[in-house]
Specification:
The chain is an alpha+beta fold. The protein has two helices and five strands; from the N terminus they run E-H-E-E-E-E-H. It has one domain.
């Protein structure tokens, strides 16, 4: 998780990571804990998640069997 002291930098970082990590087939999810969440399924057991809330940007490259909702709930606890 990256926490920026200037909220506009968090938005710029989020936009940059969307491009850098190539969230081309991104699916935007609605989750109450975050301002924006992008999810990309890479393989059956691999998922990328990029989330932003206020001035905090979180990127997760998850490999495993957990559901996306479970991962987001774990990320929410880090806020």
């Amino acid at each position: 998780m990256v926490e920026c002291t200037v909220p506009s930098l968090a938005n710029a970082l989020f936009d940059e990571w969307v491009t850098y990590y190539r969230f081309e087939n991104d699916t935007e999810l609605s989750h109450m804990a975050f301002d924006q969440v992008l999810v990309e399924k890479i393989y059956a057991d691999s998922t990328r998640i990029l989330a932003i809330k206020d001035n905090r940007v979180q990127y997760v490259d998850y490999r495993g069997e957990a559901t996306i909702e479970t991962i987001l709930n774990a990320l929410e606890k880090l806020l």
